[in-house]
Amino acid sequence: MKRISLLSIVFLLATRFAFADIIIGNPIVSTSSFSVNIQLFAPTGQSFTADRSVLKSVGMWTSTCNCLPLITFQLSLLRGAGTSGAVLATRQAVAPQSLYGFVNFDFSGVAVTVGQTYTAVMTQITPTPPNVAGFGIYGTPNDYPGGIAFIKASPRPDLEFALRVIDDPLAAAAHEYPEKFVCGAPDTDQAQSGHGIVASGQYFATVNVHNPADVTAVLKMKVATAGADAKSAGFVSSFTYVQLGADQVQKIDCDDIRSLAKNPQSGKEPSGLLDGFLVIITDFDLDVDTVYTGAQNGQLRTFDIQRVPERNLNSLPQQTFGNTHGKAP
Fold first, then answer.
1. In 3D, which of 212, 226, 290 has the Cα closest to residue 253?
2. Which of 118-132, 165-179, 258-272 has the lowest mean pLDDT?
3. Which of 91, 150, 225, 285 has the fewest other C-beta atoms within 10 Å?
4. Which residue has the higher pLDDT, 232 or 65?
5. pTM of the predicted model, to two decimals?
6. Residue 59 pairs with which residues in a beta bridge?
7. Are 99 and 201 part of one and the same domain?
8. Within the chain, where are the H helices?
């Protein structure tokens, strides 16, 4: 059973965590912060030196107005220092209203080379609303030795843009626990006519995760929902990170599953019958059980508890998919 000796944890939400590798600049703390208009001074970015091999997210500091529509930004991760390098990956993110802080872009699973330099270049996708001067990207005088700011593609060694690079600490985790769930009620007409996936009723699934170790366990979880039919794939969420103390138990019920499956663009949770898997990945041996209940007319009709077996990811056969190597699904 694995033990953690040193682990730096940054709190996100109550028991949800991210792991910070690089945090450059802080416009709130600095007395010499600056900003440039993201459109007028494009391309604008910040270089950094990777110190972990797999990313989770990259964020840059910006501000938005208290107005609609919500503003979509794009961040491209380029190889090398500068705004003309080869594109490694590109992601988009929608910023909330009245933001003054990091807008984070999901780069889950993107691999980088430790010790190599990369540049994060942020651009604005949504047009600036009328009567709004524009949106800024913020920075401070440079005290980060691993990179510099770029403004209108020109290097500025004296400046740095506020940048936050979060790595994936469980990229090489060996244990996976896939929990089957069915949540909610099917369409009554479909169920009564023999169509759909389950009979008429109300279905619940609650996953209990127990950490039997005497040290804190770290795990990540995501939701993969089934498509509407055999020809369409469903939605796969990004990972959420959780810390579970010694002998503690985490509960994930249908409400939590719907929250994890929330549409990242609209912010809406899926309604109706939800069918899929909750996938937990960790370096630790856990006790994972799923409690299933079904009801009709408010009365309990079925009850079952299933132990979720551990899948060793390192034991999966290696296969080649196209020009890339990976584990067979």
1. 290
2. 165-179
3. 285
4. 65
5. 0.55
6. 104, 164
7. no
8. 188-192, 254-260
